Amino acid sequence: MNARVLFIAPFLVGLLAGCVTNHQRYGWGTYDPSLYAYYKHPTKEAALAESLEAIISTADSHHAPVPPGIYAEYGYLQLQGGKTLAAVDLFKQEESHWPESKVFMDRMIKVASTPTTTSTTK
Amino acid sequence: MNPLSKILMLGAVLMVAGCAGAPKRYDYANFRTEAPRSILVVPVTNKSVDVNAPDYFLATIATPLAERGYYVFPVNMVKSVLSDDGLSDANLVHAGDPRRLGELFGADAVMYISIERWDAKYVVLSTSVTVELNYVMKSAHTGQELWSNHQRIVYQPQANSGGIAGLIANAVVAAMAKAAPNYMPLAHQANNGAINVKGTGLPAGPYDGLFGKDRSEY
Predict the structure, then answer these.
(1) What confidence tens digit (pLDDT) does each residue in B35-47 have?
(2) What would the pLDDT profile of A21-65 be if each residue is shown by its tens digit?
(3) Is B188 helix (H, G, I), strand (E, B) or coil?
(4) Of B60, B10, B83, which is closest to residue A36 (Cα–Cα)?
(5) CA–CA separation, B119 and B131 (whole Å)
(6) pTM summary value
(7) CA of B60: which chain A residue's CA is closest?
(8) A21: how many CB neighbours lie within 10 A of its CB?
(9) Mutation test of the interface with chain B: which of A16, A70, A111, choosing the one with the most B Cβ atoms within 10 A?
(10) For residue B146, what are the domain limits?
(11) Which fold has domain A27-113?
(12) At residue B30, what are phi and psi to the nearest 5 degrees?
């Protein structure tokens, strides 16, 4: 980084701060880049799962709220991996933290609890 | 200039650009009547030639909506569940009834986003990258439109020094963009411009202290 950039960057960051009105409400960890990487390379599902787990454990250790949808996304990866008990537990967590998710989570808990099928349509 | 400082500069310049201008205020009458708490973002439709653009974009949208104070349904899970239910075609989902989606997911509102442009144009010594998006939020209870927005973000690298040095810098940036154009900063900027601008963006959601109290601005 040359001296000119070092000089200008704080000024630009200052301008930037002036127009962004809200601070970060949640700790998102590497959610965006991990989901992007997963879409780019679907084999990176384990890395996405790790990222989601890290968001939850970081929030828990700071007694901070886990962002909406994160328990559910993590639970869905567990469900796809055949870990139905873990999936149901995570869907229940999503539901208890975010009452708006109740209809969807109840439906998914039912799906996960039906042993003969992994499809959500049946 | 190293790549990090380049990214910082680009981000800052885009942010500043995003603050400029004062488009006319959106009519929030329907939005205020419903005061949605939860948003279901359905898979994104695509008019660009980049078949991966909708998925890549999907990775950028949950964060700003949740930060605005809404419950956002898990975007990747929703996409997979819809696909399992035979709705892997985003165009079909967009053509369907938002009330039906509302019943399935228990959502208050459905966010329909279409990618109008997602491309890079290469000229010998410079490149421009364009992201253009339409956002429409509909009530999952009545089906009526609650909010909409349109964003067009163009990034054209500018040389920061004139003459031959500037031309070379431009060519280097263009070559980088050609090898792997990174649309993500532009997608983030488009989302920010759509959601977080007073008078045209989304009013504060239920997990924001200003929920229902920002009527003078929205």
Answers:
(1) 999 999 999 999 9
(2) 446 899 999 999 999 999 999 999 999 999 999 999 999 999 999
(3) helix
(4) B60
(5) 7
(6) 0.83
(7) A32
(8) 13
(9) A16
(10) 25-195
(11) 1.25.40
(12) -65, -40
